Amino acid sequence: MQVCDLSGVLGNSYALIADGVESVLDIISSLVVWGSLKFSTQPPNEQFPYGYGKVEPLSALVVSVILMAAAIGISVQCVREILTPHHAPAPFTLIVLVLVVITKEIMFRTLHKTGHEIGSGAMQTDAWHHRSDSLTSAAAFIGISIALYAGKGYEAADDWAALFAAGVIAFNGIRLFRSAWTEVLDSACTS
Fold first, then answer.
1. Are 59 and 122 within 8 A, CB to CB?
2. What confidence tens digit (pLDDT) does each residue in 134-171 have?
3. What's this model's pTM, rounded to 2 decimal places?
4. Which CATH class is domain 2-184?
């Protein structure tokens, strides 16, 4: 969401900027999932006699790698922001974050339900990506609140919240990568 990026820049909040960057990645990953769903339903042909079913878990791998790359990039910038003294974020950034959390949670629930109904691992992966965003936005809300209401000396709480958000993003990326990887490799269930 470019709104988050712009609000983060205007509101002096790296947590909100990081949230916006991740929202842009959501758009990219959603396009990857949508394309894979469309492509994976093509009928088998001479070149691919078993069909294109593996395209879907491969796209889930792409989405998970995007998540992990975003987590690394955000983490590096968070450390830079923590080490650089700056002003506290603007209060309006809290309103932006509330709207983002609500939107992302609605997107998660819709995609997760649909993905479950049609048996799409890639769509469920994308849904969890939105849940991850919802959690990172909530963390940003807490960090900005601390930076605003605790006063001088707590300005970096916003950046610590962004670092926490990067950890959540990395965790989800790794978890989703493992799931997609086992599907790509057709691993057997073990008890």
1. yes
2. 887 888 889 889 988 887 888 888 889 888 888 888 88
3. 0.70
4. mainly alpha
Residue 135, phi then psi, degrees to nearest 5: -70, -40
Per the listing, tokens 């070149």 go with 47
Q: If DSSP states are collapsed to H, E and C, what string results for 171-191? A: HHHHHHHHHHHHHHCCCCCCC
Residue 39 near residue 55 (C-beta atoms within 8 A): yes
DSSP string, 122-151: HHHHHHHHHHHHHHHHHHHHHHHHHHHHS-
Which tokens belong to 187? 């691993």
Structure tokens at 38: 């469309």
Q: Answer yes or no: are the C-beta atoms of 30 and 125 closer than 8 Å.
A: no
State how far the Cα of 44 lies from the Cα of 30, in Å rounded to an integer. Answer: 25
Q: State the chain's maximal CA–CA distance in angstroms.
A: 68
Per-domain boundaries in the chain: 2-184
